[in-house]
Amino acid sequence: MTLAIFSFLYRDNPIYKMAESLLIGVSIGYTLVIVWSSTLMDLLFKPFFCNEQYGLALPFILGLLMFGRFLPRTSSFSRIPIAVMIGSGAGVAIPVMLEARTLKQISATVTPLITESGFPDLSAIVVIVGVLTTLSYFYFSREHKGSLGISAKVGTYFLMIFFGATFGYTVMSRMSTFIGRMEFLLTEFLHLTG
Amino acid sequence: MRKIETRHWTFLGLFVCIGLVMLINVTVDHPVSAQTQKMYDFIDSLPSGSVLIVSFDHEASSLPEIRPIALAILRHAFSRGHRLIGVALLSEGTAIGYRLMRKTAAEYGRKYGRDYVYLGFKPQYIAAILSMGESIPRTFPQDYLGRSYENLELLNGVRNYDDVAAVISITDGSLTTHWMEYGSARYGIRILSGMTAAMVTTFDPYVDSGQMYCLVAGLRGAAEYERLINYKGGGTRGMLAQTTAHLYVILLVVLGNVIYFKSRRKRTTR
Amino acid sequence: MNRKIALVICFLFGLVMFLQYFSQHQVARSVNQAVLEYWQIIFAFTLLVGVASVIKSNVAQMRRGQDRSYRLVTLIGLVSMPLLALVWGIKADTPFMWVFENVQAPMQSTVFALLAFFVASASFRGFRARSVPAAILLLSALVILLSRSAVGSSLFPQLTGVADWIRNYPSMSARRAILIGIGLGSLTTSLRVVLGIERTWLGGRK
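Output (structure tokens, whole complex):
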């Protein structure tokens, strides 16, 4: 299977396509089994039929309404369970996005710029300049001219540093995955290493 | 047969370099980073018998990189006598997590139900994280093996995050973000993470703000952790190959730029 | 009419889940727990719907004669996993787990491992210092790559410190700005969804 996938490096071929098709099928089947056993059995069917928790009839019905999507006449009913999920998710996200992603990050940015000894803290200055200029780059309500243009340009440089660092770490990550597969091929398949 | 293109030569070069280097059994020395040291110190400083949740929030695709990190952390935790609760918020992590915990627990003579428990998978990770904050037994009425929550010795007295020292999220994506935003922000649980190197820059702001306590990243992070626990695992074995891969990519970048600037100069002088 | 009912349900659940965040009362916590359970159960059903859709579309394409053999292999893989689970269970050392560990996991890892080759190829063919921003990107990447290798940290001991500084300060600050932007955007979108201003999730007009 590993070699079948690696064959794609030369070019797309039927062996690779067959392996890919098998992977898709097996992955979906695996997820189906895990979700059925861990969620539907544990949280719905066992409590409902064995422990008589009849309050679960409501999510059961809502879940069944999802299958309405397959028929044009009943497809609009599937909006109701989707509304439950979307509404719950959005409601829970409001305080979380405000606190965890915005306020905490802003408060971590606002740190003393002058140290106790009276010298400027270069790193703290770099952080605050980086955050402000990068935010100014993403401000598209005004044209990037004049002082906003200069700020956005500096923000671009900070973004390039970020993308470069991300690329470096991504290379590291992908190479690690390949090294893992090579270890399998050399050790377990070809028995060339211990 | 189709013509061999430039990209095929770069592929072949990578394959040959890594393949040859992996046949050499040499350990490469490397310093331990501050973040890895912090993770080690935290697990080491906890009183023996502390309860930790280990969440396997990754897919099978990142297993070669994630596995050494997970094993190193599990080995350390088991060697310190900590009690581990395994969960998975991605379906593929379910089987992988159980296998890793079982394998590592056996190395240290740890018993299922008393020293470690695997609760399995729950979908919709935000709902699962929030639900565990309210009640772990209600989120997982049974463990992965089908045993009732109440019948597991380790889980006596473990109701929610208040009864747990920390959550260690083993991830290859952004799921740890939800642990911090929903678990830590709402319930105050400490979050640590072992992750693929590609995700490091994504989580740096959270480490800086204190929302994430620390992180161990990539094969290099695994090698550093293995050095701290005195164990030669997948991370240590892969370091020479990793170094070679990095040098190969640097060489390609430099070569590509040299060719580019040379051809640009030729065009301007014409 | 159906759209209005869905919008009202969305608003009610959004309001309830938003308000319960600010209450520690037992009733609020019970309601919170119940809604979270509903959420997970409905989500499980959406996955079932997804699986049914995949089967439906594959069968339809097979009937049209498109890539018949590949579609058949996909369906065989899809059906075999539940069958194996039904007969032998899903715990360790069962055929179900064997297929996962020896077919799915290795193939998925290998698909990801292909990216290493494409990254190497892209580094040679596409990574050019054509402008100042591109040169900064390149330099940042090279510093990180060299510092994470054993050779780099041995030859230039200060390199690790420089790489760590780049990661912890300028790179982190750019990412933080992106996060703040995403946070504000997510906040406004969530508000718009709960208040019924954002209706794209409702789908087509009916």
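Residues 146-189 of chain A form the longest helix (44 residues).
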